[in-house]
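WARN  no MSA supplied for this record, continuing single-sequence
INFO  ligand: 1-deoxynojirimycin
INFO  echoing inputs
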Amino acid sequence: MKASIITILCLFILIGCTSEKPKEETTTPMATNSDWWKEGTLYQIYPQSFKDSDGDGFGDFRGIIEELDYLESLGITAVWMNPFFESPMVDNGYDVADYRAINPRYGTMADFEEMLNGMRDRGIKFVLDVVVNHSSDQHMWFQEARKSRDSQYRDYYHWWPAEKGEPPYRFSLFDPEGGWDYVEETDSYYLHTFAEQQPDLNWENPKLRQEVYDIMKFWAEKGVNGFRMDAFQFASKDITYPEFPEGYEKDFIKYHGLRPALHDYLKEMYKEVMEPYDVFAVAEGSGSTLQDAHDLVDADRKELQVAYHFEYVDMARTPAGYELSQFKKVFSKWDSAFAENGWVAIFLSNHDNARLVNRFGNPSPEFRTVSTQMLNTFLLSMRGTPYTYYGDELGMTNIDMPTIEEYVDIDAIGKYKSAMAKGEDMKEFMKVLNYSSRENARTPMQWDSTTNAGFTTGKPWKKVNPNYKELNVAAQDADPNSVLNHFRKMAHLRKGNLVLVYGAYDIILDDHEQIHAYTRIQGDEKLLVLLNFSDSDATANLPEGLMPGEILINNYASSPVDGDAVTLKPYQAVILKIN
Ligand code: NOJ
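INFO  complex generated
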């Protein structure tokens, strides 16, 4: 029985949706010495698309070095960079062939070190993407393991001997054929949760785990400050491989991963790496319930430090968009659930999702600027650590790719093949793909209005969004009212006001259909955030006793408050002191 890939994918992306009741009270967790990752504003760099220094059309470390002052000017305090290791690039680097070697496309180890030092000199920490749920099938471990059942690397992966018959069905996120692939040399199947070129590593094997910790130590010794554990929920699975019961798709993640042993591995990793090197770790995904997330990140558990769940980004996956009421509910739920213990990442975009402004704002020329400013105000004024994806500080938009021939991403192509096989309405499919594909988020950074947006002097690996002529860093640098300068103001405001990091978050005007409003309070520090999520004026009356004071942030010239009456312009975003 092969389950519908789309159904499972929808379930997969819905993990994190829970029915638990949030706790009511909000308190103020205090910082410890190592809490830079709470107070930080993270900026995510997709290295292939950021800046090309040598004209080969791919972004590289020296390109990033050229833009270190730009990074500093943003006011961000840490960079998370997508993988740049030796790789055949089947999944743009999420298929690692050597965890200690740099893909020459990005430069050399010396370039990496120079980049890291340049960041350190500017007070910017570095978070490394660690892809160890799986390796590339080109990794030496797999190359050896596939040759012989007696290989010392055999148990680094998951195998099903063919003499036992066909293995029980397992889903693959990228392979419409399923999660097992046959290897003739040893007459057996290996497991891959992602593409067939991404065999899953066997975390049950203590030797494999030690290899991974050694890799992490190698990078910690180079000076990286944190790790993002890719797809780590899948690292622990039931290796007795039972047949799944009917309806297992409803709890997809529990069947394909998230076994209790995951916690043992994380505790071990904490002891081996996080604690001695004073580095932090965030895993991609955090289970399917609030309890799962707590079990992964609560400080007293000594496993991970930050929950990065998918419920935020899952709200706007299709052109149908999202409801503000749902948006408020989701963010409030996660905030109150982590008010006392644990910590969350605050984000609405990354390299696996279409652009922020297309999904949560309004990309039309009239509202692109103000709606992105409003979203960035939101992201940088919530409790948790904000993650900004490169280009979202400018309001970079989706690119129009109506035909499948333009796509290179393994995820898009896999989805297309399985939709074809199922006889889906391909016109409708392409409409959704064009809106939601992660390729939208991987177009070259728009630096200026010169050829290829100043990204490369060669042929860019991916086409540049044609709107670069007016939407670019140089133009926005010069405009005090630009999205970029608004982002800078927000990042600096957050840096200087710990109330925005630790202060209690309380939603007001809960039922308002256009306005999202909340207070952030820590001791005498009291702020009010007013955000209009709609393209028309929005009015409201503030709750009694809430006396608005000095305006700290405003993306319009006019003040929205008059006594207790508020009138917000389309997508107006305001932060005020409360008297
Ligand atoms: C999650 C990453 O974010 C995504 O880009 C990648 O394709 C998969 N993991 C597989 O590593």
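The radius of gyration is 24 Å.
INFO  checksum written, moving to next record
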